[in-house]
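#random but structural
TW: two for the price of one
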Amino acid sequence: AAVAQAVGDQLRGLTVEDSVLLEAMVPTARLPVPPPRSPAPRLPMALRICTLVCRSWGDRPQLCQVACAVGRAESPVRHGAALPQGLDSSLQQWGVVAPSQRQALATRLREATEAAMAALLATEAELSPQQRGGTRAHTDILGVDFLLACVDDALELVALATSSQRCLETCVLAEAMGRGVGEPTGDLPRLLAEAMLHRAQCHLVEGKDILLIGAGGVSKSFVWEAARDYGLRVRSSGR
């Protein structure tokens, strides 16, 4: 009621060209954590989860890396404000002690991240080349940030924003830090390399002529669809 009253008061004083923008208030999750080692009061903290997803073979979204950052709850947790850490260890520090609960949150995070990428790819598929920014323009890498929130006494992942460049920097830093302490190399370098190599191969064949001899029947229709997507000029010939 207080928010509605404040908006109404603002609207009455605005001109035609002005407007009021409202953003949702998402409270961060506050879980029971171990008692602090210091007697100093513990400030409310927030957990920001940074994810990086890429376009895999067959235009399938695939989660590449997850990195978490902890900051003050009363201000946004920004990229670069804290060193990244892993999801599982962050959830343990946050008071999520049950392994099954941490695994369930990780599964929901993967589903939400890949669903965001799938929605973006579906939207881009409906755009014209001019609207996308060019014939070969499309999104290969997407970063999605989440806040660990508490809704009706249940932990929820709330998507905050997309930021490919900052999420890529954070996840690459997390990968490098892991290697620095002896952890095995993750899937991030391989998945990013696959996405870039696939784009490079498409660029090499774009605009080329290809002659198909005996291309087959209806079961081989994917050949024509792939050729169109790669920008090939196709000529067919009988056997």
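TW: number two ↓
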Amino acid sequence: SKSSEEIKQQNSELSEQVHSLVSKNSAMKLDIEDLHKKLEMAELMIQQFSNQSQSLDASQQLQMALEEKASLETQVAQLSESLKQLQVERDQYVEKLKEEQRIWQQRVQRLSEQMHTMAGEKEAHMAQIRELEANIAEM
């Protein structure tokens, strides 16, 4: 019973961790989408500046937009890598949960079989006790 409770607790904790990773995964996907949108905006700005005259101010703005684009691309790459890592961790937790569930199902099955066997033995012992009591009463 204690082991069962401990396993249930572990399963709960692992489930919470999986849910947490799924939440982080979703948040990172949203961040990536936002960064992609910013990247598209930066690319549009670059195109607009490229089409305009090459004044010093426009050139500075173009340089800033290029730097922002590079920064956003770096962030997208980092978030994509983090997302992949979270997905791997999530998959590992799911597999661990499945394995523990299988183990506990086997244990529960064995305990159930043992209880059934012990109930049969108890009934046999009770019958033997009644028979012995009857023999004693006859004597």
